[in-house]
TrEMBL record:
Enzyme class: transferase
Binding-site residues, substrate: 33, 57, 79, 132
Protein name: Shikimate kinase
Gene symbol of the encoding locus: aroK
Cofactor(s) listed in the protein's UniProt record: Mg(2+)
Organism: Zhenhengia yiwuensis
Length: 165
């Protein structure tokens, strides 16, 4: 099976859903942020603080493209991967699912999370969410409404869409 990509805002459950989906479909699972941290030998927070967001985004673009060499893998991307046009074009050409949640739910999950370098004030996060939302929609093949759904039901929704394609 071709790779499947999960995109969405911070806290939307990409990593968790990727693991559950990989298990259900007997596929591999890869978290792009974890890959970057392992390759760079630093946390994302450290990369942002020491080398800047642009450097991190360069790594993100490089490793996102490298995932095309993988097979049978669910790839969980970082929330900001859609920020670059080249990444959006890449994702649009894949089997990409946008995990859509209302901002208030996401904010309750990420507020105060020190590991997230872009986790700032409520207003700043809301502005970032509103900006990225259109980018997620542009990058995705499917948009999955996640509110009031369990991970199990979300996996079932995605599998159903894959079977219908």
């Amino acid at each position: 099976m071709n790779n499947i990509y999960l995109i969405g805002f911070m806290g939307c459950g990409k990593s968790t859903l990727a693991k559950n989906l990989a298990e259900a479909l007997n596929m591999h699972c890869m978290d792009l942020d974890q890959l970057i941290e392992a390759k760079a030998g630093q946390s994302i927070r450290e990369l942002f603080d020491e080398k800047g967001e642009e450097y991190f985004r360069d790594l993100e673009t490089y490793y996102l493209k490298e995932t095309s060499n993988l097979k049978n893998t669910i790839v969980s991307t970082g929330g900001g991967a859609v920020g670059r046009e080249v990444n959006r074009q890449f994702l649009k050409a894949q089997m990409t699912f946008y995990l859509e949640w209302p901002f208030e739910v996401l904010y309750s999950r990420i507020a105060g999370d020190e590991k997230r370098p872009l986790s700032k004030s409520y207003e700043q996060l809301l502005e970032l969410y509103q900006y990225r939302r259109a980018l997620y929609e542009e990058s995705a093949v499917y948009t999955i409404g996640c509110q009031d759904e369990t991970p199990y039901l979300l996996v079932k929704k995605i599998i159903k869409l894959l079977q219908e394609k």
